[in-house]
């Protein structure tokens, strides 16, 4: 299941999870620390400043994703991130010519990190999309010896055994463990997740914040109820067919900001999907009629 990159919530450091004033989606999102994209497209590579610099204004922290299929392009993007004052960089594994062993992947990541040696470095682990099946636990073993700037990873996989062992085996390292499966976040919290990155936080952020606050208060029963509520919506849209296109449609619905159509080969979400998603959001009390904006749904769907 492919989803758009979303908002990063780091509640251990900022438990209030407030967002910047004036954001049109502030009622629905989490703390704004935003990693940008999975792999930059050529238009962004030509002038990434036009993409990254506006995002940096008003945000507490910006981690720029510099992953690409070409090592040279990743290095150039990493250098650019350093030049514009990013707070960190993140890299996904190359997924056409794949690294099949830990050492090969580490060597690739090491070369990217070296291009911005002053920036904290994060690994984006999402094997369902990259096809790179190297376990994160294995990758982290001894990683600081190879990449001294390594600070943590975004873990976008349902393998909670692997995630738990990442945390357990690295308790002394103070790594950031950012979880990327929204519907399993509460389970990851119990295992020691320190933050989260997810597309649904763009419009389910209020309920997620409430879940995080309940967890911090050790009201685990209430936190579980919030997680189940989030799961009901995600389960509903997954059955309809849920991906980047559908996420854009929901974001247009919630914010009123036209997100535009997806690029081919993705197809725009159907009006039937948008109507069904809207009805489900209302039925679960994620949205009231006053929450909905007068956005151009056709542009986003």
Short description:
By secondary structure, this protein is α/β, with parallel strands linked by helices. It has helices at residues 42-46, 49-56, 71-83, 102-114, 127-130, 136-140, 143-146, 160-168, 185-191, 201-216, 220-240, 244-255, 271-283, 297-300; strands at residues 7-9, 33-35, 61-65, 88-92, 121-125, 150-155, 176-179, 195-198.
Q: What can you tell me about this protein's structure?
A:
This protein has 301 residues and is an alpha/beta fold. The longest helix is centred in the last third of the chain and has 21 residues, at 220-240. It has one domain (7-218): TIM Barrel (Alpha-Beta Barrel), CATH 3.20.20. An 8-stranded mixed sheet has the order 1-8-7-6-5-4-3-2, covered by helices on one side. The chain has helices at residues 42-46, 49-56, 71-83, 102-114, 127-130, 136-140, 143-146, 160-168, 185-191, 201-216, 220-240, 244-255, 271-283, 297-300, and strands at residues 7-9, 33-35, 61-65, 88-92, 121-125, 150-155, 176-179, 195-198. The protein is built from 14 helices and 8 strands. The chain is globular. 45% of the residues lie in helices and 12% in strands. β4 (88-92), α4 (102-114) and β5 form a beta-alpha-beta unit. The two termini are 18 Å apart.
User: Biggest sheet, strands in spatial order?
Assistant: 1-8-7-6-5-4-3-2
CATH topology: TIM Barrel
* Shape verdict: globular
Give the N-terminus to C-terminus distance in angstroms: 18 Å
Q: What number of structural domains do the residues give?
A: 1
CATH class: Alpha Beta
Structural class, judged by helices and strands?
alpha/beta
Q: Say how many strands there are.
A: 8
Note the quaternary state here: single chain
From the alpha carbons, calculate the radius of gyration and give it in angstroms. 19 Å
User: Uncertain spans, ≥5 residues at pLDDT below 50?
Assistant: 1-8, 10-29, 294-301
């Amino acid at each position: 299941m492919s989803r758009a990159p979303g908002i990063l919530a780091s509640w251990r450091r900022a438990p209030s999870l407030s967002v910047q004033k004036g954001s049109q989606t502030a009622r629905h999102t989490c703390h704004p620390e935003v990693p940008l994209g999975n792999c930059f497209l050529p238009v962004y590579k030509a002038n990434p400043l036009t993409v990254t610099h506006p995002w940096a204004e008003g945000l507490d922290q910006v981690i720029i994703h510099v992953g690409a299929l070409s090592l040279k392009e990743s290095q150039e993007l990493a250098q650019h991130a350093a030049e514009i004052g990013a707070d960190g960089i993140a890299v996904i594994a190359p997924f056409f010519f794949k690294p099949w062993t830990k050492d090969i992947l580490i060597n690739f990541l090491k070369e990217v990190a070296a291009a911005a040696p002053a920036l904290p470095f994060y690994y984006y682990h999402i094997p369902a999309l990259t096809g790179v099946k190297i376990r994160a636990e294995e990758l982290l073993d001894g990683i600081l010896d190879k990449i001294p700037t390594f600070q943590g990873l975004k873990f976008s996989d349902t393998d909670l055994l692997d995630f738990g062992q990442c945390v357990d085996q690295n308790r002394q390292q103070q790594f950031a463990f950012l979880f990327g499966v929204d519907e399993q976040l509460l389970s990851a919290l119990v295992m020691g997740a320190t933050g989260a990155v997810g597309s649904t936080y763009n419009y389910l952020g209020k309920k997620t914040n409430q879940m995080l606050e309940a967890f911090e208060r050790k009201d685990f029963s209430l936190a579980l109820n919030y997680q189940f509520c989030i799961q009901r919506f995600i389960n509903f849209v997954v059955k309809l067919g849920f991906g980047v296109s559908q996420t854009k449609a929901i974001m247009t619905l919630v914010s009123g900001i036209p997100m535009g159509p997806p690029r081919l080969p993705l197809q725009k979400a159907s009006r039937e999907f948008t109507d069904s998603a809207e009805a489900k959001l209302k039925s679960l009390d994620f949205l009231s009629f006053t929450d909905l904006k007068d956005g151009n749904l056709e542009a986003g769907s």
